């Protein structure tokens, strides 16, 4: 295991930021894939969908050991779903650079993500492990 992080997010906070800043906030923080998934949800559960992804980004920043510093930004981390529906993270930019620096030589990253929400809270946990290719 290379890193672990968790985060609890208040969905009401995300609702307030969405109401105040709208698309500017969503486009700054969330990837196009994340926004498309959230926008398919009904308006009542859309903030929870965003809040879970916010929590996953926060948890990932903790697992990377940097928080949002050293070139790691929210937009560098995107929750994507594997074909079976399981969430994982796609990292770019500074988050990817940091991930690569954490990995021992000859290994590849494996990111495990779990997310849940129960109004008014959303929770996510991220585990980053280094795997030796077979």
TrEMBL record:
Needed cofactors: Mg(2+)
GO cellular component, one term: cytoplasm
Main location: cytoplasm
Key words of the record: Cytoplasm, Fatty acid biosynthesis, Fatty acid metabolism, Lipid biosynthesis, Lipid metabolism, Magnesium, Metal-binding, Transferase
All copies of domain 4'-phosphopantetheinyl transferase, residue ranges: 3-96
UniProt enzyme class: transferase
Family under the similarity heading: Belongs to the P-Pant transferase superfamily. AcpS family.
Listed name of the protein: Holo-[acyl-carrier-protein] synthase
């Amino acid at each position: 295991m290379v890193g672990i992080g968790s985060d609890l997010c208040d969905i009401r906070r995300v609702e307030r930021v969405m109401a105040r800043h709208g698309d500017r906030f969503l486009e700054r923080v969330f990837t196009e894939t994340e926004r498309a998934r959230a926008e398919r949800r009904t308006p009542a559960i859309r903030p929870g969908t965003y809040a879970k992804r916010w929590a996953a980004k926060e948890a990932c920043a903790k697992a990377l050991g940097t928080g949002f510093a050293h070139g790691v930004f929210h937009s560098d981390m995107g929750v994507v779903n594997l074909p079976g529906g399981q969430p994982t993270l796609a990292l770019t930019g500074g988050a990817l650079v940091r991930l690569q620096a954490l990995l021992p030589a000859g290994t590849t990253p494996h990111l495990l993500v779990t997310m849940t929400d129960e109004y008014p809270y959303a929770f996510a946990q991220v585990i980053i492990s280094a795997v030796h290719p077979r």
